Amino acid sequence: MEAKTQDIKYKTLYVPGTIKSKVSLFKRAPNNPILSPTNKWWESEAVFNPGVAEDKDGVIHIIYRAIGRDGISRFGHATTKDGFNIVDRDPEPVFEPGENNEYEVKGVEDPRIVFIDGLYYIIYTAASCYEKDEFPRLPKGDMPWRVRVSLALTKDFKEFTRHGVILPNMDNKDGVLFPEKINGKYVLLHRLPPDIWLAYSDNLRDWSDHQKVTHTRPGHWDEKRIGAGPAPIKIPEGWLLLYHGADHHNVYRAGFLLLDKDHPNKVIARSDMPALEPIEKYEKEGIVPRVVFPEGLILRNQELFMYYGAADKYIGAAKASLKDILASLK
To answer: Is the pLDDT of residue 5 over 80?
Structure first.
């Protein structure tokens, strides 16, 4: 009976588009999508899932995932000053799969960026496939993907230093660092399906004390899988974390968690209704339809600028009041 009740609630509240009138926390950029595929070979099919960072001059750097004709994911770079309008866009990829790197054969995906001690730390997903002898019963062409959380550093988004896979022997993604140490340790959010987890490290190489932060919610918009979005933002109330959630129709929406400042495995509050859902054409129609996938978040003058992948093909931006976001949390 309980499962049936939850199913009825789901069908009533979370069929795509039915909660549009209630989802008004974020106002989309009037020029959305702010980035789209071009005719360049490396980004002709899709540009999406952007990580962002604001430098000391107030320039927002956008590192985004791009797919071209060869089907391999690379990173492009663009900048904006006002948050919505692109002022510069690199003509070539700034970060590509490492040569002879077995974990990046299928590409580099989904960057999240933090600034620590003068360097930008980029957590990304390295994508490859398992070898045939690891799954001998599968037919050719059906090899399962292998995904690993990886790290690269840069000071200028031009030259990068790879640190490789930091969570070995573990299919994992949606990795993101906190922008400062907590209780003397680095803290990394990651996903062990279907939930959000975290781990601690002294050196960014060896991670331990893995703990579940929060879980999916039956009957809600985030009932099938969840994952961390951009790096958490530190505010007086705690750590504000934007995350994505998928339902059983594979519709991706975005909401917030508020985590304890000193114990980030503890959830103080959580979005009941999503803060953003796919309702625009560029969010509903693309390589993967009905997806908003946030990976960038900037706090400026008590306003939050969000950057997200739309339908795995475009990049959108939106703005919301921090006060309104906090008021929406339960």
So the answer is: no
Is the full-model pTM beyond 0.70?
yes
Angle at 307 between CA 254 and CA 48, to 5 degrees: 95
Q: Where are the domains of the chain?
A: 2-328
pLDDT digits (tens, 9 = 90+) for 183-225: 999 999 999 999 999 999 999 999 999 999 999 999 999 999 9
36 CB-near residues (< 8 Å, 6+ apart):
47, 313, 314, 315
Query: How many alpha carbons lie under 13 Å from residue 86 in its C-beta half-sphere?
Result: 18
Superfamily of domain 2-328: Glycosyl hydrolase domain; family 43 (2.115.10.20)
Tens digits of residue pLDDT in 317-330: 999 999 999 999 97
Tokens, residue 246? 């998928």
Residue 125 predicted with pLDDT over 90? yes
